[in-house]
Each structure stands twice: as structure tokens, then as C-alpha cells.
Predict the structure of Peroxisomal membrane protein 11B isoform X4.
Amino acid sequence: MNLSRDAYEIRLLMEQESSACIRRLKGSGGGVTGGIETGGLGGPGTPEGGLPQLVLKLRLRVLLLARVLRGHPPLLLDVVRNACDLFIPLDKLGLWRCGPGIVGLCGLVSSILSILTLICPWLRLKP
């Protein structure tokens, strides 16, 4: 459940960052034709679209995600901690087999990040 909350927060912040970036571009006079939000030139039905356009959109999304997570350290720590917490029960239930070293490392990382959020309250994700 915590990962779904993190995904929701990430989506909201990515939308805010994307709209702020578009506003900055429009304000500076650089028009955006065929941007990531508008679908771009050469959509899936046109001959000039295809895989390169999809790769470009994916690359822009990953860069936007990195920018959002870099700007919000509490969200980054919460995502990493919750992702580490996910592997332990998946291994015990036999749904995702990984070695005991990986399970131990995930537990260690999760515990260290939890202690870090207790020591530095500003790193705690606010609901």
C-alpha cells in the first residue's frame, strides 16, 4: 500500500514539474511543438513515428522522474525503503526467489532508512 501511495505522489509531482517546465518554455518564447504532453508529431498512426519517438518519450519521462526524486529526498527514501520491504515477504512466500544475502541487504537498507527518518524528521514523508 505504501508503494501505491508513493506512486501517486510521484505522478502528482511529475505532472506539476511537467506543467511548470512547459510554462517556463512558453514564457521564454520557445514554443513546444510535438512535446511529450501533446503526443508529439508522428504518433503511432503516422509513418514518421514509431520506436525512436517512443524511446524519446521514455527517456524524457525517466529524466523527469529523476528530477522529481532529486528534488524530494523524503519521497526518494520512502520509495527505496518500501521497495526493500517488498522483497522480504515475496521471498518468504516463494513468489520471488532471491538469495538470503539479498533479503538481508534489503532488510538492512530498510532498517537504516527507517532509523535515518527518525533521526532527521525532515526526511519523513508527510501524508
